[in-house]
Every structure is written in C-alpha cells, then in structure tokens.
Amino acid sequence: MITYAAITVVITVPVARAGRLRSNRLAVATALIFLTAAVGHGLHAYLAFAGLGHAEHAVSIDWVWALAWWNVVTGVAGLYYWTVRRRTRAPAGAIYPDPQRERLQDEADAHRATLEAVIEHTDDAIIGSDLDGVITAWNRGAERIFGWTAAEIIGRHARVLTDDAGAEEQRDMMHRIRTGERGVPYETRRFRKDGTPVEASFSVALVRDRFGHPVGFSAVVRDITAIKEAAERQRAVEERTHQAQRMESLGKLAGGVAHDFNNILAIIVNYTDFAVEEAAGNDALATDLRHVRSAADRAINLTRQLLTFTRGDTIQPQDVDLNAGLAEVHAMLGRTIGEHINLIMVSSPAPVMVHADPGQMQQVLLNLAINARDAMPDGGTLVLEANTAALDGGELDMRPPLPPGTYARLLVSDTGEGMTADVAAHIFEPFYTTKPRGQGTGLGLSTVYGIVTEAGGSVNVYSEPGVGTTFRIYLPLATASGAALPAVLRRDTPPSGDGRTILVVEDEPALARVVTRILANGGYHVLTATGGRQALALFRLHGCDALLTDVIMPEMSGRRLAEIIHQTAPALPVLYMSGYSNGLLGTTHVLDGDIAFIEKPFTAHDLLHKVAEVVTSQTLIPGYG
User: Fold this and answer.
1) Which of 323, 373, 465, 554 is deepest in the core (most CB within 10 A)?
2) Using one digit for the tens of pLDDT, what is the confidence trace for 285-304?
3) Is the pLDDT score of 272 beyond 50?
C-alpha cells in the first residue's frame, strides 16, 4: 500500500511541477491506477486484520460493500488508463512527457494555427466540399467574393453559386478530378448571393484522408472580374490602334493609286473628247464614244472618293448648321429613295454648328442613306437625326477615339438587314463590300470615314443582324462663328443611390459589367442579368426598385420583360437603353415615345442622373401600368 502511494506521489509531483496535470493525461491515468490500488490494498489489509485479530467480532457488511465498490472504481481507472494509452500511442513505459516529442507537437500545432489563420484571412476564396459537391469549408475570402457567410452556405450544394450551364461544368470538373486529373485550373463565371456575375479563376484538387481515400474537393478561387475588364479595355485600345494603323496604310495605298489613276483618266477623257469631235456625222461612233466618256466620268468620281478618304482632296471648310444640311438631304432623298422606304427627319431644336465642308457633310449623309436603302430591299424605316452629345472619353467602338467634351452628332438609322460584328469591323476599309459583284465599289463608307476624321470627328456603328443599323457621326462643335453652343458636359454630382436596388439586364457581358460598376460606385445595389429569363428569376427572388434593360435582346425584348414584371409590380420604374437611336425606336414603335430612355454610348454621369430621375419619380411607365 505504501509502495503504491509512493509511486503515485512520484508520478504526480514532477508532472504537477511542470504544469502538465491537464495536458499529460497518461501520467494522470497512471497515477489514478496506483492511487486506487493503494486505497484498495489498505481496505483489504484492514478487513484481513479485523477478521483475524478480533474473531469475536464479525466484520461489518458495510466495509465489504465499500471494498467491492472500490474495486469497481479501480476497474474504471484501469479502463480510463487503457483508453488514454491507445489515444496517445506513447512508447511502452513512457509516463513522463518526451521534450522532443512535445516540442515537435507544439511546432505542429503552431504551424496548423498559422495555416488556419492564413486560409481564413486570404483574399482568395478557399472552399471545401464533399465528393457530392456539398460545401464543407468556407473562408472569409469566399464570403467577400460571393456574399454568402459560412453559416449560410455550409451544407448547401456548390451549384447555388452558378446557373444551369455552370452546374454542368461543375459536374464535368468533379468527374475529371475523381478519375485522376490533378490540379485542374480553369476560368468561368459564377454568381454572388445577390445574383451579380463574377468572373473567377478556379484551381480544384482532390482531398484524400490519411489512408489515401478520396473524401472531397478543395478549390482556390480568385476574383478576376477587374483583371478581365482591364484586359478587355486594353484589347479595345489595341484594336483601335491597329484599326487606325490599318486605315492609314490603306489610305496611303489608295491615295497613291488614285493620283496615278487620275493621270491615266485625264489622258482617256481628253482623247475621248478629241475623238468625239472627229466623229461628227458618224452617230454610231459618237454614241460609242459617249459611253466611253460616261465610264471615264464614273472612274473620276471613284478616284475623287479615294482622295477624300485619304484626305488628299481639296476641301473648303466653313461653319455649317447640320440642321440645314439634314433638310437638304431629306428633300433630295424624298424624291429618289423610293416609296417602300419610310423616310423620317428629326432635327435639333437649336442650331448645330460645325466647321466642315458643306458638300462633304451632304456626301456623308447621302452615302449612309444609300447604304441604308440597299439594306432594306423589301422596305423599312430610315431616320436622319441631328443633335448634340456629351462624351467622357471612355466610350468603346469609337473610330477613332475622341477626348471628353460636347460634340455635334448626326445619326442615320435603318431597320434593314444589319451586320455581324465581323462585317462591322471592316466596313470602313476601301473596296470592302458585302454587296454582290458589280453592285458596290466598297468606297462609300471609307469616304465617310475619311471626311469625318478630316473634320476631327469620329464614327460609331451599332448593328444587329435582322434588326437594323445606326451610324453615329460625332463632329467638334464650331466655336469661331459666335453662335451659342448647345449643352456642355454635365458637371453636377449625381444623387446617391442610397442602397436602392437596380435590376440591370444587358446581353453584352462587357457592357453589363461596365453598367454594374457605374451604378455600384453611385451607391446602388445592383442585380445583373444577361437575359430576360435570368432577370425574371432575380426579380422574383430579390425584387428591385427600378429596372434598367436593353431594348433589343435575344429570346425576350426589354419591352416584353417590363410587361411581365409590371404584372406583378405595375408601379416599378423602367429605364430603357439601346445602341439604336431614340428616333428610330420611337418611329418604328419598338418603344413608345414618352418612355424613359438612354442612348448608348452614354457617360457615367448621364446614366447616374437618368437612373436617379427614374428611381425617384416613382411614376408608372405609360403603356405598362
């Protein structure tokens, strides 16, 4: 008994002095074994002594029960010792802590804590899931990128972050990784909790347990939305630079050809005139020579257009009111364009003065109008407009780009066949044409480009196959004439969005991201959809304070989307946007004339002011209430 008690003291005292009574469970369990043994032996000795030395007195039954219960305690202590021994896997006979082992354990614990802190505080999303795709781990980076807290999303399937196409992509990636593919990196689109799209870079790997069995997936996700936007802007700048260089090279080539060809034509024309004089009295020969002269005149006109494109022709710029030029061209087209074309003119209420050659301005309008007529063989609507527009210098698809400012603007819109993006990229190149052979020279639009750029302006084209085309011509406003300039760039600060929710519907992802950023920076909470069906799903899930939608979209138009939403929320304000002019959309009854509308390209200031007007008005949209 004394020996057991001494062993108990020998075990507990050093461990207690080291401050490890709580952490060294094996020592405590061992001490308990010897302590219970010491007490048990004491009880046995007492009962034996009482039974042998005092036979005349029977041993009390209470002491017998006490001994029995203490044996149970000893057994429990032994079971506890066995359990602790199995868990600690200590070497045989090891009771006191191994300093080297504990140091390594402490280092491992510190490393694990550091790793957990790094994972928790990294900007990238660290996501874990089981083999079925159910989310099991979610760090703060994931909360920041996707808007879900860990408590909200752990236990939900990863498809909550994506749409149907993305869910199929997820299944494919999980299958590839399970079948042995390692470290699969890919870029894709996912959606935040509020429905906003986020461009993300994924690196996915398989997680295995200590026996090598697959137990789940780990994914490192980086938000690359800003990187993609910057890359798109860089590509746009490079494309515009390449376009300018290509046009310059083509212009030099065309100019050289035109000058040399003019010399040849001068010889042909003059000798033809000589021959006509000599053919007096020979009607058949004179008729043939007149055909030759007519063809030469057409060739002279082509070279003139080439020289205009290359800025090699003589021009006489002066202050011109575009309203007057628009009226002259409208009158001319009214007599010649044909009854199957509905010709509409929308002039500016105030004079729109530019410093340019009047004849060239008419040529620009005529060339664009003739192209529009040819794009509507079965009839349609042609709209000519003149007004002013404010640019902030960041507009895309301006050829060439323009600095910020207020510009005069001519618009020529049609409801014709439209163009694909590939065709639109080449339309200003000399001799490029989509018309059948013999029906087009390919110089009409290159001439327009040359005239506009010579005047310091720019051209923007918006077109969709089967819908129509709008050309926008931007020209610097004249300042030397003394005429009052129209509206200048709007400088007043737009009202804050105050957290109001705007549902943005735009089928062009790059533009959708631009609009989302503008509105978010303006204090709005933005829900973004790339089509009508997704927009309806977001509206039913989250609701909104206003709808900002493109007019022409695949599957469902902006007008139809507004009609469906107004069945549920008839007072919801709607702002329409389109690359087509308001004049074209109104005259063709795509939209009613008194709806809220903003025309692309727009500035951030214009968009925020227009959205603020629509949101704060809280009035019904005519025709939809």
Assistant:
1) 373
2) 888 888 888 888 777 766 66
3) yes
d(CA 551, CA 533) in angstroms, rounded, equals 15
Closest by CA to 474, choosing from 394, 391, 414, 413, is 391
Which residue in the block uniquely carries the two structure tokens 């007096």? 280
Residue 244, Cα to own-chain centre: how many angstroms? Answer: 27
Phi/psi-derived region of residue 500, left when phi > 0, alpha when psi is between -120 and 50, beta in every other case? beta
Among all chains, which residue has been given the structure tokens 């390209």?
601
Q: DSSP letters along 446-479, please?
A: HHHHHHHHHTT-EEEEEEETTTEEEEEEEEEBP-
Which tokens in the block code for residue 264? 């040849």
The dihedral through the CA atoms of 74, 77, 79, 85 has a sign that is negative
Cβ count near 600 (within 10 Å): 22
Give me the residue label for tokens 């510190």: 110
C-alpha atoms less than 13 angstroms from C-alpha of 328 in its C-beta half-sphere: 15
What is the distance, to the nearest Å, from the Cα of residue 271 to the centroid of all Cα atoms in its chain? 64
Helix intervals (H) in 197-282: 225-278
Residue 386: is its pLDDT beyond 90? yes
DSSP 437: T
- At 168, is the secondary structure helix, strand, or coil? helix
Are 561 and 538 in contact by the 8 Å Cβ rule? The answer is: no
- C-beta separation of 221 from 247 below 8 A: no
Considering only CA atoms, which of 6, 35, 7 is closest in space to residue 95?
A: 7
Whole-Å CA distances, 152 to 156, 160, 216, 228: 8, 11, 20, 29
pLDDT at position 622, please? 37
> With pLDDT > 70 as the criterion, what percentage of the chain qualifies?
69
Cβ atoms of 296 and 268 within 8 Å: the answer is yes
Residue 60 makes CB contacts below 8 A (sequence gap 6+) with none
CB of 456 closer than 8 Å to CB of 405:
no
| Farthest CA pair distance, the chain | 174
pLDDT per residue as tens digits for the range 48-84: 666 655 555 555 666 667 766 777 777 676 676 667 6
**What backbone torsions phi and psi does residue 539 show, to the nearest 5 degrees?**
-65, -45
* Sign of the C-alpha dihedral computed for residues 97, 99, 100 and 102 taken in this order: positive
